[in-house]
Amino acid sequence: MTPKPAAAILPSRNEAATVAAVAAAVDSALDDARAVIVHADSSDTSHTADSFAAVSTLAGTVGLTGLERGKGAQILAAARLAKIADAEVVLIADTDTRDPDPAVHRALLDRVRDGAALAIADYPRHWDEANLTNHLARPLIAATTGHDVPQPLAGDLAVSREALATAVRAAAALPAELAVCTNGYGIDAFLLLTAAATGPVTSVRIDEPKRHAGSFGHLPAIFHQAVPVLLHLTAAWSRSPAPSVGRPVVYRAADRALSPDRVQTMLTALGGLAPLPDGYDGEPWPLPVAGAWRAVNSGTAPADATRQLWPHYLHRVRDWLVSGHHATTRQRAQALAAAHDRLHTVLVPAGAS
Fold first, then answer.
1. How many CB atoms lie within 10 A of CB 289?
2. CA-CA distance, 288 to 170, in Å (whole number)?
3. 7: β partners
4. How many separate helices (H) and strands (E) can be counted in the chain?
């Protein structure tokens, strides 16, 4: 019996400069005239859609334009198309990537074809980036579900037909306050955790940092959309986490030099995002993460727990930038791994493992 073809979803917003190269790389990875690439666009102008449409591809293409703003809304709109729902495996790729590598996309597709529910890219991040991943998402997911995924919020992934269908159904059943988050940056955590409840999750290791648009300027939106989803799904996790077998936790924090002026600019920006709340006690990280998870597990709304966690998170990122600026690559990786292990230890009495 001939296997069903694969498909791809390319969500975008104002990425005319990079979408064509990503589409060409994805088409090379699919390498199948029966495949389809869906461009799900919510740009302010037609330039991004025009750039995508100009690419010559072996696969068929579908352009969705004028979509609701939000990465998740775009992905879910594409996922509801019959051509996507019928594909054996669906690749989702960030369209802001510079120099995309077809081999990465191909490896993700192959992992799902080999039986994974979801395969996600594992590329090293520069030490000053990926703060939500390194300080919160990765250690929380690992402690509560047993899945230690190095880059759980990576935008390049492949998902099986069954896992994507599960995610689409679960998204439709979300309460409004969580649906808003999943329609935005919360989609990455949502896809990972809904897939992890259906089958194996694996990573494709990449040696070089990904070249793409920085996310620092979107930090408040990413936090307030991703963290409620993370807290909700990890607190509701019904399976017992896989037991720890003593494997060392490894973080890859790629080095790069930041000027003192750049560090100060980032610190100033963080300082203006939220004042410390009344009664703030400087509780050491990652204890505030454990507190937020326990609160949701006890009935607090995920959005409320996220708001309470926000100033603690900002304090953590400021401390990380100050200390990391003078640390070695090895020291940074060790500090991240130590915090990861602390969260696991703290959550053990709460029933997370």
1. 27
2. 28
3. 36, 90
4. 15, 9
What order of strands is seen across the sheet that includes strand 89-92?
A: 60-64, 36-41, 7-12, 89-92, 157-160, 118-122, 201-205
Residue 205 CA, chain-centre distance (Å), reads 15
Q: How far is CA 350 from CA 64, 228, 338, 340, in A?
A: 45, 19, 19, 16
Q: Name the nearest CA neighbour of 108 among 96, 97, 121.
A: 121
Overall fold of domain 7-222? Spore Coat Polysaccharide Biosynthesis Protein SpsA; Chain A (3.90.550)
The β-bridge relationship of strands 125-126 and 118-122 is unpaired
- What tens digit of pLDDT does each residue of 175-213 get? 999 999 999 999 999 999 999 999 999 999 999 888 766
Q: 0.90 exceeded by the pTM?
A: yes
User: Cα angle at 164 between 76 and 225, to 5 degrees?
Assistant: 50
Which pair of structure tokens corresponds to residue 324?
């990391």
In tens, the pLDDT along 311-331 reads 999 999 999 999 988 899 999
Domain boundary assignment for the chain: 7-222, 254-350
Question: What is the pLDDT confidence band of residue 270, given thresholds at 50, 70 and 90?
Answer: confident
